[in-house]
């Protein structure tokens, strides 16, 4: 028997390529950190191999334990966590640090997959819907309390997995509307936003009045939705004012530009965009980036590592990297859809969606399209916790896929 049969060579090849390219870029920022990342990568390969030779049902059967363990690790941050860069979301053991939220995502993905795979699961039933929300919500609430807004956003990945299993698409519409009202009310007087919403609702009713069944429930629903959105618009300035100064400035940078906050929250973004723009089409060459070598971007090896790619490898190198990520994430979605079991499919969708949100938010943040939040670029940002956690999810998924392709059932 050919043991490579069912092994997804394209997916694993892209994983290796991205990781190796990442190590080279981290080495360019700081050689010592590049060497450490290489060690983390070797450890990840060993852990991945152990996962690959483990029984397939191991992760499905112990999903609850992994989930509870992840939540307890998050809760333990409150009494035992170490504050780094203003956030208490790390454990420190001597010179070694660990970010438990990365591993909590794995436990949540396994637990949700295990629950959805239950024969009685049906999102049309309230029990199934609310239990799914609870599984996602418990670790998400703890993350919010830390607070770690960046990681909280990534928990939205599990909603994408549930959408594949039958969750109404209205969820995304509601989130988009709330986000639009909040962001618009920052730049425009909330009363103008409310006037615009009322006018829009009036126009929609005018053109669809023949299709509307007018009764007390319909009227109450329209008034209720407009009322909630109006309250959100009026509350937005107050919410913004209550945020810590650095978080408020990170949002305001989107409206006023990074130069308005060049000495505070806009500093990283200013030099990040400078580095990317200075790379031109072909880049300045490996280890030739003046912004990178000048250490102008603080912690460039972590969340802002993409600006190193932009400066040293240029538009061409950045585009190739983005295409590689797109093919890799798309490949995981495709393989997830081909799985014979619900557990495998949901875990695959959760994994791919986590990668997608991390990738989209990080790249958008570095280019000034999204507020600065603590979101690493998968496999690419420096850090043992992040690389190991993503590698574990990678190994679990490709192990499940391998078993699925070799299954006779």
How would you state the average pLDDT, rounded? 89
How much of the sequence lies in strands comes to under 5%
| Helix-strand string | HHHHHEEEHHHHHHHHHHHHH
Helix content: over 70%
Low-confidence regions: none
Shape: globular
Number of helical segments with 4 or more residues: 18
Query: What is the gyration radius calculated from CA atoms?
Result: 23 Å
What would the keywords be for this entry?
3 strands, globular, mainly alpha, 409 residues, 3-stranded antiparallel sheet
Write the layout of secondary structure elements.
Elements: H1 9-29, H2 31-52, H3 57-61, H4 63-75, H5 77-80, E1 82-84, E2 87-93, E3 96-98, H6 100-116, H7 126-145, H8 149-154, H9 157-164, H10 170-187, H11 190-208, H12 216-242, H13 245-256, H14 267-278, H15 290-293, H16 306-337, H17 342-366, H18 384-405
Antiparallel strand pairs: 1-2, 2-3
Helix pairs in contact: 1-2, 1-16, 2-18, 4-6, 4-7, 6-7, 6-17, 6-18, 9-17, 10-12, 11-12, 14-16, 16-17, 17-18
